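Worked example

This section walks through a single chain of length 133. The input is the sequence exactly as stored; nothing has been trimmed or padded.
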Amino acid sequence: MSLERLFDIAFRSDLPSTALSLPQGSAGLIPVDAQADVDISDPAFDFVRSIRVFEITYQQRRSSDGDCNSWGSVYMGSYGDQGEYSRRRSSVSAVPTASDLAVPADCHNYWHRSVFVEWRDYEGSYGHEEVHY
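Given that input, the structure is written out below as tokens.
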């Protein structure tokens, strides 16, 4: 499902105004349970476990001494058997080729910062989205 579709659903104008308002006296806070009471360990939910989130920061530049300096930070997040999210340090080489990250072969100024998300839907089709910031 594309991000545009998610926004369309989130901001539908045909919802009753009461569906978007907060209860009286809530002060804008709504309690949220930390866990859902749903078992998603069945293989039918493998599409949830296929989601991987990469937080990517990479820079490269040539110093005034002519040295090529590069620095990268990559974190990869994924979902477990019951949908719990975990995040760990990863590497630039682990970033999927579908990402816009393109480390130059020669040394010149290069900066990349993004969040890259990839998944396989319930039919096994590959999808991805990348947001640069």
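What to look for: The mean pLDDT is 84.
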